[in-house]
């Protein structure tokens, strides 16, 4: 798999943005034994890391498969990524999305030219809806996480992070279906075997954590977490074994902690981050993970709609960090930072 990740890195060059790595003086002051490095995939194309896996997967299709078109199912970020890449590579895309997907994600997916088919997650599964469409149309399915090319594309996040900050002691990664976590874990353990890989998910969607510690696949149904990007029923047949082999620890965080992390990122680091992308920071602020050394945090996405953000920002902040000391700095590791910082602003113009 690591060879596939390295090939994906070459394939993505000039297509995916090299997202910036920033630090927080506030966090560093609060945790004397740790320094934090945020890998900002919220500033990736389509506003999430999903562009990496989508581009790698579609770019590797045969010409016949590209002509037939592709199908994907997603609550939002994978949907937008597939639609965007389809537009870039002139491949027709059909996306199955839940009716309650964030409005911004539905609108963005349609804006990229995809045909969006919605379903009721209370009465249907996205897999069953997608299967029916596949049988009728003969499209190529690109699932959101359980796909080798998708996993390889997501693993390039770790390659960039460890090139810029090679001496990381741990990387904390959000986990839904495990595509990002497994890709990062494979890449990081091959680059720096001593780097600990920590997966984090909401308490209300704890199937991956239960699976990790039970050693067998567990599932959940329609988890009611605010972190819509990780509302998956279970890990996949490909991602689960990789997580068992390469991930060191799985932990969960509360809905309150996730919201506090979103507020911290907004008010104190001036970043718009969706709840799923704030999960790694939630593990730090809530004390579920005790950091020591250099800690990488994967900010996986920034696609949050206005009403949800307003709701989160209107609630009281229960963190103990002194806001008067808040500040944001470029990465302490100056290598590669200057060239990275220009990339996201180009993404915002696309």
TrEMBL record:
Region Disordered: what ranges? 317-350
Going by the entry's taxonomy, the superkingdom of the source organism is recorded as Bacteria
Where does the Tryptophan synthase beta chain-like PALP domain lie?
18-301
SUPFAM superfamilies in alphabetical order: Tryptophan synthase beta subunit-like PLP-dependent enzymes (SSF53686)
* Keywords in alphabetical order: Magnesium, Pyridoxal phosphate
Co-factor(s): pyridoxal 5'-phosphate; Ca(2+); Mg(2+); Mn(2+)
Please name the PANTHER family in this protein's record: SERINE / THREONINE RACEMASE FAMILY MEMBER, SERINE RACEMASE
Protein name, per record: Pyridoxal-phosphate dependent enzyme
